[in-house]
Amino acid sequence: MQANNLLLEEPIRMASILEPSKPTFFPAMTKIVGTLGPKSRSADIISRCLNAGMSVARFDFSWGDAEFHQETLENMKAAVKSTKKLCAVMLDTIGPELQVVNKTEGPIPLEADTLLVLTPDQDKEATSNLLPINFSGLSKAVKKGDTIFIGQYLFTGSETTSVWLEVTEVNGEDVVCLVKNSAVLSGSLYTLHVSQIRIDLPTLTDDDKKVISTWGVRNNIDFLSLSYTRHAEDIRHAREFLSKLGELRQTQIFAKIENVEGLNHFDEILQEADGIIISRGNLGIDLPPEKVFLFQKAAVYKCNMAGKPAVVTRVVDSMTDNLRPTRAEATDVANAILDGSDAILLGAETLRGLYPVETISIVGKICAEAEKVFNQDLYFKKTVKYVGEPMSHLESIASSAYVLLSSELFRAAIKVKASVIICFTSSGRAARLLAKYRPTMPVISVVVPQLKTNQLRWTFSGAFEARQSLVVRGLFPMLADPRHPAESTSGTNETILKVALDHGKASGLIKPHDRVVVCQKVGDASVVKIIELDD
Questions:
Q1: Once rounded to an integer, what is the mean pLDDT over residues 37-44?
Q2: What is the Cα–Cα distance from 60 to 508, expressed in whole angstroms?
Q3: Which of 54, 244, 433, 441 is least surrounded by CB atoms within 10 angstroms?
Q4: Most confident of 19-33, 71-85, 159-173
Q5: In angstroms, rounded to a whole number, what is the distance separating the alpha carbons of residues 28 and 371?
Q6: In 98-140, which ranges are E strands?
Q7: Strands 487-488 and 515-522
Q8: Poorest-confidence range of 31-35, 75-79, 301-305, 522-526?
Q9: What is the pLDDT of residue 524?
Q10: Coil, strand or helix: which one is 522?
């Protein structure tokens, strides 16, 4: 991980670009969320995805039933056991998603400059002139001249299966549209998006609640991806619902920003959410193409300053059918990392793509290269300036650890950068604060379980906290022995630290004579110390 970091502002030797990258235990500091589906649900494929760099598995309930997803999850558990790599579980809700109802699942040819009727009558058969949809309020939401997009589920934009429509007339509950381009709708699931129009449906639907309270509870999901988040109240409502579901009160909620309404309320949503997913597929329809990058940069910056994970979607769509990304896509991934993104979310590329493992591997390699030229010093200064004074006690500890690492005096004294930062934590918050400052080296988050009771039984915390670190850039969790508390006395300090160092050595992160920065609590005091390893 500690390759010679360059800055884009510095001259880069052209010859160095051709030098092969050194293999590392962690493919990249940036995390990769993979959507599991028909092409990526076997234990073997999932094992290879984990080894390639996937750290979060996304289960999208827009398609497939609970039984299908449960089988996939059981395969994932087997893969985690065989690879010994942690993997978090993300449940993606359906939300107010509009869908074309094609019961025959046969192809539907659409010709440009012809009229097409969208009807809420789902008993009618889908034809080239009429498409049933799953929403009865469309005629009340649109007007003449509005734009409607219909695309294959997780459309990439390169298919000939996407069609643009222009509303020409509203006739009762039916909406008459002009077809703007020829296409053939083929496949089982097509989604419909109305540009910049509010759809009067709840963000967390009854179907979503049923899935969460059954499949979600059964599997103790780590993350809930709340599709079509439009207001802060959407997050509050979802959190209240989760709070009544036992262990799911610990589940983190990621707001999925997919339309202009979510964009307009972004600041309030960010305050309530645990993280943000910038869903560029639907946003790319709602926003003019030249504005998408502006929102991405602004949203990622706000997430960085708030210390909340920013996840970017739709980066290598062409790899759904191809072994290599386009030049533009490769550059897009790198720019997302330079913007400050914590994770890349792969959708169609891994769910129905032909090369799920290769996609994860290539995206990880691009992320790793971009991280080498990420300007940590500038980022750190911006972050500290944004936080301002006075900092919270925990925030100041996180800041101090990075200052020790980045100061010129410290670099001159040891002449070698620390190989890792080790942070002991019970809630995970201290480690996340460290990662917020984007140190150049990995942060090993040693999550020490705490014993809890509900007066009926004893349980240990820690598993949620460890897995939820798997979406944070630069943060790599390990579960510690619960017999050693996070707030330790000097008698247990050395034991738990030795376990963490042994873990670092076994993973290849720490080598003899390396210097390691350790952040932990000793009694009531928080301590940052530097240790040098012997042979």
A1: 94
A2: 34
A3: 244
A4: 71-85
A5: 8
A6: 98-100, 108-110, 115-119, 130-132
A7: parallel
A8: 522-526
A9: 63
A10: strand
Amino acid letter at 111? E
The predicted-structure confidence for 291-339, as pLDDT tens digits, reads as follows 999 999 999 999 999 999 999 999 999 999 999 999 999 999 999 999 9
Peptide bond into 439 cis (omega under 30): no
Rounded Cα–Cα distance for residues 13 and 180 (Å) = 49
- The tokens for 15 are 């010859």
Element (H, E) at 465: helix 463-467
User: What average pLDDT does range 203-228 have in this prediction?
Assistant: 96
Rounded to whole angstroms, what are the CA distances from 459 to 243, 462, 486, 497? 18, 10, 17, 24
With bands split at pLDDT 50, 70 and 90, how would you rate the model's confidence at 451? low
Q: Is 225 helix (H, G, I), strand (E, B) or coil?
A: strand
| 289 contact partners, CB below 8 Å, separation of at least 6 | none
Greater confidence (151 vs 109) lies with 109
Which candidate, 115, 54, 114, 116, places its Cα nearest to that of 80?
Answer: 54
SS3 state at 393? helix
* Residue 33 falls in which region: left (phi positive, over 0), alpha (psi -120 to 50) or beta: beta
The helix or strand, by DSSP H or E, that contains position 176, with its residue range, turns out to be strand 174-179
Instruction: Tell me how far apart the alpha carbons of residues 31 and 55 are, in angstroms, rounded to a whole number.
Output: 6
pLDDT for the residue numbered 412: 30
Structural domains present in the chain: 26-96+203-372 (3.20.20.60), 98-194 (2.40.33.10), 376-533 (3.40.1380.20)
326: which 2 tokens?
A: 């386009």
CA 277/CA 267 separation, integer angstroms: 14
Residue 236 to residue 273: CA distance in whole angstroms: 9
Specify which of 97-101, 260-264, 395-399 reaches the highest per-range mean pLDDT.
Answer: 260-264
Cα dist from 230 to 200, 266, 277, whole Å = 11, 8, 13
Sign of the Cα pseudo-torsion (307, 313, 319, 321, in order): positive
Encode pLDDT of 80-92 as tens digits: 999 989 999 999 9
